[in-house]
Amino acid sequence: MENLILADELASKGKSKQKGVQLHRLKANENLQRLHEMLVNKTYRTSEYGTFKIYEPKERLVYRLPYYPDRIAHHAIMNILEPLFTAVYTADTYSSLKGRGNHKAANAIKNALKDVDGTTYCLKLDIKKFYPNVDHSILKMMLARKIKDYDLLWLLYEIIDSADGLPIGNYLSQYLANFYLAYFDHWLKEVKKVKYYFRYADDLVILSGNKSELHGLCHDINDYLLKNLKLELKGNYQVFPVAARGIDVLGYVFFHTHILLRKRIKQNFARMLVRRKNNASVASYVGWAKHCNSHNLLTKLLITNNVQL
Q1: Taking the alpha carbons of 108, 111, 113, 118 in that order, is the dihedral positive or negative?
Q2: Which residue among 29, 45, 188, 267 is buried most deeply as judged by most CB within 10 Å?
Q3: Would you put residue 127 in left (φ > 0), alpha (ψ -120 to 50) or beta?
Q4: Nearest residue to 57 via CA among 104, 126, 110
Q5: In this structure, are residues 77 and 160 in contact, taking their beta carbons and an 8 Å threshold?
Q6: pLDDT tens per residue across span 222-231
Q7: What CA–CA distance (Å, rounded) separates 215 from 220?
């Protein structure tokens, strides 16, 4: 019960105005007690998913579960599992992890590019329909090797099998996705001896001073993913010189000497300033821009639109 109470607090943080949270608050103690009984008696079943589409940064179908009981249950699971998962990850994965995230990944790439000779070329790739193609049997086998609590495994399996692949939008999915690729990360670092590797969800960036080495590595990566995880790379992988075009990732374009905002981010920022409907969003874009070489861009946009921060 203590874990469920904590999970309720964490799941509702910043969401007190949501209808599901407000309905739960009307009988929170009763709901948590009922959830506790469902978990103990193994009668818990994942609720029916709702779905909606998002269009930025690309079109995706997002799944949504009710606040009670599902989002509380997912937070309760991660209260226990997060330290275990984090211990498995290499230092090269950044999405959905406390203390890492977008800006830490950007700083890591920036620091790597100081080694100009060792980062002449970039291999940029991502995994084809990663979340929908996560194989349940492989994921459950990986979890069973790491977790020996059979009650917890029952609960995880029930949630995993509630939808195809890993549903984008599920609180638990982002952590299971990172875990699914964790041993792939170790293979790249420890077997393939890749020095400069960065993974944000299913977007991968590898830097090297040897172009042919990157082409060979791409072939090996695709083989590994097919044989071990039943995944495959998108056909649009790229090997290119960093100096010629920069590395377009994380909303920035990285060069050895400077970092720019991605073109689409600049366009969205300009539109936001024109509309000026949400000061918090404007501040967010400004914060984003301050992490790259954008002083002239910021000055021009803010003066043009008569914005003071």
Answers
A1: negative
A2: 188
A3: beta
A4: 126
A5: no
A6: 999 999 999 9
A7: 9
Report the residue count for the chain.
Answer: 309
Q: Enumerate the H helices of 89-170 as residue ranges.
A: 101-112, 130-133, 136-146, 150-160
Q: Give me the residue label for tokens 């620091």.
A: 111
Confirm if 107 and 205 have CB atoms less than 8 A apart: no
| Radius of gyration, CA atoms only, the chain | 22
Q: Which two tokens stand for residue 110?
A: 């920036």
Secondary structure (3-state) at 171:
helix
Q: Around Cβ 285, how many Cβ atoms within 10 Å? A: 19
The whole-angstrom separation of Cα 24 and Cα 16 is: 10
pTM (2 d.p.): 0.89
Task: Label residues 245-259 b or e (16+ Cβ within 10 Å = b).
Answer: ebbbbbbbbbbeeeb
Q: Give the separation between CA 293 and CA 260, rounded to whole angstroms.
A: 6
